[in-house]
Design brief:
Immunoglobulin-like; 2 domains; three-stranded mixed beta sheet
Length: 171
Amino acid sequence: MTFTMIFVLATASATASLNVGDKLPIVTPSDETLALRHGGLAQAQQSPENLIHVEIGGLRNDKGQVLCAIYSSADGFPKKGDKAVARAKSSISERRAVCEFPGLNAGTYAISVFHDENSNGKLDTNFMGIPREGVGASNNAKGHLGPPKFDAAAFRFSGSRLELEITVNYL
């Protein structure tokens, strides 16, 4: 006899008197009870999906969008978005933006962001290759005569949820 049936019988006997020969109504478990019996409760109590939540500040205005990319190695970081594990974009409100990266496995990552003020989908630079739009990286890593290195921006993600903050800089 399952816990659910014992509970129903106990509840019924507490609220009604039974005489010899009386018949109890047949109780069938609901879909919710069946889901709980077959592991639904365990699924409902699992931790939320792995997520890296990035708050981006230091933006000089609300124009355009913020583009974010997350990398699992130095290959392509921070310039080649096609080498990123995932990309995200965000609108800007009150000089702040948010990028989220759901479903990532535990590992070492680095994030690059830039303020795409004219919404053309690329980082605009001057003739020397210096960004005309704001840039940033995880750990607020800064480069020396170029973009930051992966190791300077790298952080360990152990799963669950991680909150990060990145400040955009204008060069």
